[in-house]
Amino acid sequence: METDTQKKYFFIRTFGCQMNVHDTEQMAALLREAGWKETASEGKAGLILINTCSIREKAAQKVYSLLGRLQEVKRNKPGLILGVAGCLAQQLGGQLVRKIPAVDLVFGTHQAHRLPEFIRTVEGGGRVIETVFTDSVRSLHRITLPPAGTISAFVTIMQGCNNYCAFCVVPYLRGREESRPFRDILEEIRQLAGRGVREVVLLGQNVNSYGRNLAEGADFADLLREIAGVEGIERIRFTTSHPKDLSDKLIRAFREIGPLCEHIHLPVQSGSDRVLSRMNRGYTREDYLGKVARLRDACPEVAISSDMIVGFPGETEADFEDTLALMEEVRFDSLFSFKYSEREGTAALLLDGKLDDRIKGRRLRILQELQDRYTMEKNQRDVGRTLEVLVEGTSRNSGADLMGRTRTNRIVNFPGDGVWIGRTVPVTIREAFLHSLRGEAVLPGLQSPALPASPEAA
Ligand code: SAH
Ligand code: SF4
Ligand code: F3S
User: Fold this and answer.
1) Is 453 inside any structural domain?
2) Shared-domain flag, residues 287 and 417
3) Do residues 377 and 396 share a domain?
4) Cβ of 266 less than 6 Å from ligand 2
5) 131 with 111: CB under 8 angstroms?
6) What's the whole-model pTM score?
7) Alpha-carbon distances, residue 245 vs 99, 128, 250, 285 (angstroms)
8) Any residues with Cβ below 6 Å from ligand 1, and which?
9) Are residues 87 and 172 in the same domain?
10) Tens-digit pLDDT profile for residues 290-305
11) Could you read off the pLDDT of 256-271 as tens digits, one per residue?
12) Are residues 422 and 396 in contact, defined by beta-carbon separation less than 8 angstroms?
């Protein structure tokens, strides 16, 4: 029998977006297939992988400080394998090893499927630096299933991005846009449903342009319709959608496709036409507002979240005021906001009008205070309502509570029984906070298929 000490343990730290989180899940699956076992304890691991992000300077700095610390750990543990994956690995390649010589393995975003092979090389005394872009991302054609008991699972539907927003490194680090074949996606979702998954979150940098490189002629709305027909899948979410490609067909899908949740993440980035054009976003403020109005017309309950950048080169006070005015008009349900950060290789580096960090900081504070008010107002509106909550697990704050989400993507904590995990439970909301709601289950022990589909089911 295998003893605990014979097992090889791995530990993965993930930075960045949901796509990176899912890449980590896939790497973990590959390692498990190769005989490794996951551990939650960094100290126990013989292999530590850092899956990195480079979207802003701060993301890169976090990785450096972690690697600096791990380099020290390795001094007392020479057999430890230290690997770096993801976007920063793609960007820096061999430079990373020159900076942090203790790193044994660096591999880019198109190379993750070769992880077991890389590790064998390192175990044999070699060092690996692999960052070439391939024409096609192999992981796109592979089905990876999450651990048993997963209720909400990510499914990649496309890779890369062709949009070249002036501020963004993603096209350089993830490569050209590529859609995954329709039938592969459906097959994966059928298998997920068979294992008890109830919600799928479809992933891509720009899901609205799904299908453009496929011969099948199907688009994103067609894909949603097919997925809605898979038995056992109660909820569908997706992220991220680009406003310029949000079609009327997709807007109608929010009204017509039952399992499609009433939430869309639609990053706007700025409320000023001048800034949007300098960002190369491909839409105007009016275009954006028009799409928001059509979404709300098709589906009045839809929650809209967004991303915003302050301090883009040349952003004037008047441009910033336009952003605040757009926020006032739209009233996003939630908003991720960032100070503009210069990224190597991007078009915005060549723009004039770079802003002082103090100005960016001040604008960010003003914007976030305003949004906190709107978020609270939106969350408060749910108090007293009874909403369908898909229970994902126990609450992070208190193991005694359950945690789930409303169809509008709000986190709800409430007292309940562990047997409800994986079920949709009606919960009356009693209290609203900035990042979650708190409530009480209405009817214990209900089976989810028996519940009405409306988010307002009272
Ligand atoms: N594909 C998604 C965004 C991915 S990056 C989309 O097109 O919407 C997530 C968010 O990070 C972006 O929406 C943007 O708001 C922010 N971001 C990207 N590059 C940035 C930069 N250089 N500085 C500050 N924020 C940035
Ligand atoms: Fe970056 Fe723009 Fe592509 Fe989003 S759409 S990943 S912001 S280039
Ligand atoms: Fe970061 Fe790469 Fe995602 S840069 S945001 S991990 S695509």
Assistant:
1) no
2) no
3) no
4) no
5) yes
6) 0.93
7) 40, 39, 10, 14
8) 55-56, 167-168, 170, 205-206, 240, 242, 267, 269, 307, 309, 338, 340-341, 343
9) no
10) 999 999 999 999 999 9
11) 999 999 999 999 999 9
12) no
